Amino acid sequence: MTCARCQKLTRDLKAAVAEGDQSKAADCRILIGRHPDHEPPVPAPKTSKAQR
Predict the structure, then answer these.
(1) Taking a C-beta distance cutoff of 8 angstroms, is the pair 44, 13 a contact?
(2) What pLDDT digit, counting tens, does each position of 5-52 carry?
């Protein structure tokens, strides 16, 4: 992925998932999906209830 905006959103998404911030993770996924001319994002791992 060469788009700087997508790279930042992907980093933010991974950080949000790691922190357990599902709201921010959802926002990042939406922004990535709406951003034109980019490759589909690699899905961030979903957290299970046991990890919360």
Answers:
(1) yes
(2) 888 999 999 999 999 999 999 999 999 888 776 555 556 666 656 555
Single-letter residue type at 46: K
Length of the chain: 52
Of 8, 7, 11, nearest to 44 by C-alpha is: 11
Mutual angle of helices 4-19 and 22-34, in 10-degree steps: 160
Give φ, ψ of 20 to 5 degrees: 80, 15
CA neighbours closer than 13 Å in the CB half-sphere of residue 20 = 5
> CA 49, 32, 22: angle at the middle one, nearest 5?
20
Q: Is 25 helix (H, G, I), strand (E, B) or coil?
A: helix
